[in-house]
Design brief:
Helix content is 44%, strand content 13%. The strands form two sheets. Strands 3-2-1-4-5-6-12 form a seven-stranded mixed β-sheet, sandwiched between helices. A five-stranded parallel β-sheet has the order 9-8-7-10-11, with helices on both faces. It has two domains: 195 residues, Rossmann fold (3-Layer(aba) Sandwich); 160 residues, Rossmann fold (3-Layer(aba) Sandwich).
Length: 434
């Protein structure tokens, strides 16, 4: 199966180039929902590498299986000692994880760094929806991408192939998410010590997703009308991209305890400083499972700050359409903010994000943003995108069959290459030199 994927998705010149897999030993921890990691491991094995996955819950068994795997059923407290013993025994050269903030992945990456192992961290694409992320040493707020505009201005022009659009990916993503949560729950009797790190149980999340899909289908006419009303209104509106409850982006890369506190602060600032004819539109994350009462929080803030008729909560909607009409976007650190930047939409980031670079986002405070939202520098956007794609992005998907056929061979090739490091430079104003 791996050979079929490699032959179907790789370019001819990539196929002709031998990958240096001999002597490499990869440790896999976790993985995106579905078969992506298992298929990736097969490609690495075809190039002479050895692989081992640690199964820690029912979904690991479903997605990976038992071949080339060991099982950990102990408590989180015992995980570091057990993992160090495994690393000592196996002599791994590389580690691959999905995300870098989960308790198990965090320990694995820290120990790998201490040993000088190569770290490969996967995540959903920074440039969505047609990309996946493979970053070295960390993702999102821990990304290897530079934080100063000078690095991007000095980067070479891109020679990357044009982006291939993959069509609708959300049904695949939601399907694998529900399957993951159910498999996790079924395997709970065997993996009773595993700690997911999410505020809600996998079963509750799965039921929440099912309920949301059902409600969306029953109320799609009303929700579509609410979105049309926003797009057709004359006064300007600011768009707020909300994130999922319990997201590590909130816990690790912001100073907010949760999304509800973020909603309250943004609304308070809007009430005190935004133009009196402006509206504020909160857009829910497409994979939010409805456990956190975000819609209720928006309605409560509307009453609290006397903004009746000026706040809107959209549980669904087409984000790209909303971006086209918005006066600006407010986000904690969602990749929706990066999408906004690439559409030249003024954007402000209230958390810590890899794209929080002068010239890409507004660097002033939120009060000033409502009155004077500054658009990003278009030339800098292109340089940023070129570097992000070259270093961290792979055209494809974890979830759709076509997307995996595109992404897998490129991911395997990059994992077996040594990536050049970008040397940091002192901060700058974000303006092009000269």
């Amino acid at each position: 199966m791996g050979g079929h994927l490699l032959a179907e998705a790789a370019d001819s010149d990539e196929q002709a180039q031998e990958l240096p897999g001999g002597g490499r030993r990869f440790l896999f921890i976790g993985g995106p929902f579905g078969p992506f990691f298992r298929q990736l491991a097969r490609l690495l094995q075809e190039q002479g590498a050895e692989v081992l996955h640690i199964n820690m819950h029912g979904s690991d068994f479903l997605d990976w299986g038992v071949r080339d795997a060991v099982t950990y059923r102990g408590r989180l407290a015992g995980w570091p000692v057990w993992l160090i013993a495994l690393m000592d025994k196996q002599g791994f050269t590389d580690i691959a994880t999905y995300g870098d903030c989960g308790a198990y992945a965090r320990v694995g990456l820290a120990e790998a760094a201490r040993r000088g192992m190569v770290q490969h961290v996967f995540e959903l694409g920074y440039l969505r929806p047609n990309w996946v992320t493979l970053d070295r040493n960390g993702v999102n707020g821990f990304s290897s991408l530079p934080r100063t505009a000078d690095c991007y201005w000095n980067a070479p022009e891109s020679t990357a192939d044009p982006e291939v659009c993959l069509g609708r990916l959300m049904p695949f993503h939601v399907g694998y998410t529900i399957t993951h949560c159910m498999a996790h729950y079924v395997g709970k009797a065997f993996f009773w010590s595993y700690q997911s790190g999410w505020p809600s149980s996998p079963l509750k999340q799965a039921l929440g997703y099912i309920m949301r899909v059902s409600v969306d289908k029953l109320t799609w006419r009303r929700q579509r009308k609410a979105e049309r009303d926003v797009l057709c209104q004359e006064p300007p509106f600011f768009l707020v991209a909300l994130q999922k409850s319990g997201d590590t982006q909130i816990k690790e890369h912001s100073d907010f305890p949760d999304v509800l506190a973020f909603i309250d602060l943004v609304t308070e600032s809007f009430a005190g400083h935004a133009p009196v004819d402006a509206h504020l539109v909160f857009k829910a994350h497409p994979l939010d499972y409805g456990i956190e009462p975000q819609g209720r929080a928006v309605r409560r803030a509307e009453q609290k700050y006397g903004l009746q008729g000026r706040l809107v909560f959209l549980p669904t909607g087409t984000l790209s359409d909303l971006m086209e009409k918005a006066a600006g976007m407010v986000t904690l650190n969602s990749t929706a903010g990066l999408s906004a930047i690439t559409k030249n939409l003024p954007t402000i980031v209230l958390g810590r994000a890899f794209y929080k670079v002068a010239g890409l986002v507004s660097c002033g405070n939120l009060a000033a943003f409502w009155q004077n939202p500054e658009p990003p520098n278009e030339a800098l956007i292109k340089r940023f995108r070129d570097v992000a794609i070259a270093r961290t992005q792979i055209n494809g998907s974890f979830y759709s069959p076509r997307g995996r056929r595109m992404a897998l061979p490129v991911a395997a090739k990059r994992m077996l290459e040594r990536m050049p490091e970008i040397q940091p430079v002192k901060p700058c104003s974000g303006k092009k030199p000269g």
